[in-house]
From TrEMBL:
SUPFAM superfamilies: Phosphoglycerate mutase-like (SSF53254). This is Phosphoglycerate mutase. PANTHER family: ACID PHOSPHATASE PHO11-RELATED, MULTIPLE INOSITOL POLYPHOSPHATE PHOSPHATASE-RELATED. Disulfide bonds join 54-378, 203-429, 252-267, 398-406. Keywords: Disulfide bond, Glycoprotein, Hydrolase, Signal. InterPro entries: Acid_Pase_AS, His_Pase_clade-2, His_PPase_superfam, Histidine_acid_Pase_euk. The keyword Glycoprotein applies. The active site is at residues 65, 330. Residues 1-19 form the signal peptide. It holds the Pfam family His_Phos_2. GO terms for molecular function: acid phosphatase activity.
């Protein structure tokens, strides 16, 4: 593993800096706040190509809600920054010290970005609804040979997740879809145990901690202090703290999400190096907050992984449904990735950037992120393929099939071994629930075996 030392000294502040370079992939460094985008990958098209004889005969998708407005906590930070900007600009000559990179703040107005915070904060944007609709329509087209007009879809009961699912249904089933086909699974009922789409919330022993690793990284590298000091050099007297500096970086994504993807004013303040540190800061939060850095993450993510595995291993499901779609949130998806063992890293240091890491939050938990699991048949042999945000993610130790797929029989054996390794959900979580298994997919609203499919 290649480790890059990232100690930033304040001496660097004396060197003129510019915005991120022309060839820099910004969306590969902006983590969970960014609108949906196809993930970057290190794999070539040739590596993941399939022969024309291969066909998908069963598919699963778990998707995060679409692009949303800030959480209440984030909004409060943005509002505080906006109020400080307004106050300082009202002072005589205060704007005279602003560098050109910040001149846009003279006309920047938070009310244009978030005009109705009382109803917008925490909720979906128009872009988020459109993202979900587009996924629904493209999913129906891509898997037309598997589609049925009575396909059941599942969602957790969080409002923005439900709205995402409904918009998906509009694209998937059409505007007049049967509302009974969308099944809401409680996200507050602790007695569900593993039979939920929010397993972190039903696991009392889950002890994710995203902030400690981020603090250690900041102290070891000095990156947050360096960014704050450079911002202060662009507007002397403003008083940029490390917290405000992070808020300004977050505003890069919020500005693009709400006003349009060409609104790069906040993004262009920062350099390649600063965005690389921001990305790793976010990666650490997810790794140690809901991923492999949490001992129980694979355990809470396993019920979904096992449910998918059981269905993939059935020649025909008991209800003849072939498309299984569900909706949840970023941290829940992150745990589910670990349930399968995807994007595993042998180590994830907190004192320097691991430049060859597999897990990158920008590629797996952006707004509208989704994992698609396909059963693919080629010459009467079945294989399993994972894709996250439209890029193939090979399963470590099982890539011998076409296009780096995993032969189904080997995958089933792998998951049986993994079940022993991750342990029982109810036992390890000290859950009040009775079930360690996710069984919701076994009971769709309509049994398609008893009807003529469309």
């Amino acid at each position: 593993m290649k480790i890059i030392s990232v100690l930033l000294s304040t001496a660097l502040l004396a060197i003129p800096t510019e915005a991120y370079s022309e060839g820099f992939d910004l969306t590969d460094h902006t983590s969970q706040l960014n609108f949906y985008h196809k993930a970057a990958t290190d794999l070539t098209t040739e590596q993941v190509a399939l022969d024309d004889i291969c066909v998908v005969d069963q598919v699963h998708m778990i998707m995060r809600h679409g692009t949303r407005y800030p959480s209440s906590g984030s909004y409060n930070g943005i509002k505080s920054f906006a109020e400080t900007v307004t106050k300082y600009l009202s002072w005589t000559n205060m704007s005279d010290t602003m560098a050109k990179e910040l001149q846009f703040l003279k006309t920047w107005n938070l009310s244009e970005l978030i005009p109705n915070p009382e109803i917008e904060v925490e909720n979906l944007t128009a872009l988020g609804l459109q993202e979900a609709y587009d996924v629904g329509s493209t999913f129906r087209i891509k898997y037309a040979n598997l589609y049925d007009s009575k396909e059941t879809v599942w969602t957790n009961a969080k409002e923005r997740v439900v709205r995402t699912a409904k918009s998906f249904m509009n694209g998937f089933h059409g505007e007049t879809w049967d509302s009974s086909l969308l099944v809401q699974v409680s996200n507050t009922d602790k007695t569900l145990g593993g039979n939920t789409l929010t397993p972190i919330d039903t696991c009392p022993n889950f002890d994710g901690d995203e902030s400690s690793s981020q603090t250690t990284f900041a102290e070891a590298t000095g990156w947050q202090n360096a960014v704050a000091e450079r911002l202060e050099s662009l507007w002397p007297g403003f008083g940029f703290s490390t917290g405000v500096a992070l808020t300004v970086m977050d505003l890069c994504m919020y500005q693009r999400n709400f006003l349009g993807k060409d609104h790069l004013e906040f993004c262009q303040i920062f350099t390649d190096d600063e965005w690389q540190h921001y990305a790793y800061h976010k990666d650490l939060g997810y790794y140690y907050g809901s991923g492999y850095g949490v001992t129980l993450a694979p355990t809470v993510g396993f019920p979904y992984a096992e449910a998918v595995t059981k269905l993939l291993n059935e020649t025909a499901t008991k209800t003849c449904q072939k498309i299984f779609v569900a909706f949840s949130q970023d941290t829940q998806l992150n745990a589910m990735y670990s349930g399968f063992g995807l994007n595993y890293d042998d180590s994830y240091p907190t004192n320097a950037i691991n430049n060859t890491r597999n897990f990158r939050s920008s590629r797996v938990v952006a707004m509208g992120s989704r994992m698609v699991t396909e059963r693919i048949t080629c010459n009467n042999k079945s294989y399993v393929r994972f894709s996250i945000n439209e890029q193939v993610v090979p399963l470590r130790g099982c890539q011998s099939g076409p296009g780096l797929t995993c032969p189904l029989a080997e995958f089933v054996q792998y998951m049986e071994t993994r079940k022993t390794a991750v342990g029982d959900f109810v036992t390890k979580c000290a859950s009040t629930g009775e079930s360690s298994e996710l069984t919701i997919f076994e009971n769709p609203v309509t049994n398609q075996c008893s009807k003529t499919t469309n």
